[in-house]
Automatic annotation (TrEMBL):
Top-rank taxon: Bacteria
Species this protein is from: Brachyspira pilosicoli B2904
Gene3D superfamilies membership: 3.40.630.30
A Pfam family the protein falls into: LPG_synthase_C
InterPro entries: Acyl_CoA_acyltransferase (IPR016181), LPG_synthase_C (IPR024320), UCP018688 (IPR016732)
Protein name from the UniProt record: Phosphatidylglycerol lysyltransferase C-terminal domain-containing protein
Domain Phosphatidylglycerol lysyltransferase C-terminal: 9-149
Length: 156
């Protein structure tokens, strides 16, 4: 993972890393639509969650985002919030796979650029069954796993 970040930063000149700019949400939405039209397919629930975050940006307390630009083009973004006292909750990260290391770079740069209020933990949320994401999350040596439960209505 560290190797991917170094390769990314060596190969690409990042001309901007923005945080919580109002333009980010619009560009994130456009980035996602472009990726969906090309080669990345995600679960409908994942797409709905991201759209909900973007569409309700101003109403969600503590929400923030960050994006990496190369040649004035967004190549990675993240959406997170700081609503918990000691924890950053990362809701979504997206990267352009044509820019190897973009996922790792947005992760590192976003956290570096948002060192505030003495957070101790990063909640990376669901891995939605993606083995690559699960492996990446485990590489951070998590201190705790939250038990997950599912409930179903039987209609009775």
């Amino acid at each position: 993972m560290i190797k991917d970040i170094f390769e990314f930063e060596k190969k690409w000149e990042i001309n901007e890393m923005q945080n919580n700019n109002e333009e980010i949400k619009t560009e994130c939405e456009a980035f996602d639509k472009n990726k969906l039209l090309t080669h990345e397919v995600r679960a409908e629930a994942d797409i709905m969650m991201i759209n909900s975050l973007i569409n309700n940006w101003k109403e969600i307390e503590g929400i923030t985002g960050g994006a990496i630009y190369i040649n004035n083009k967004i190549v990675a973004y993240t959406i997170a919030d700081f609503t918990m006292r000691d924890t950053i909750v990362v809701h979504s990260e997206r990267g352009d796979r044509d820019y190897k290391g973009s996922y790792q770079a947005i992760n590192r740069l976003f956290l570096e650029n948002n060192k505030r209020d003495g957070y101790k933990f990063v909640n990376r949320e669901q891995d939605v069954g993606d083995l690559g994401l699960r492996k990446a999350k485990l590489s951070y040596n998590p201190v705790k796993f939250v038990e997950k439960y599912s409930g179903f209505c039987t209609g009775k």
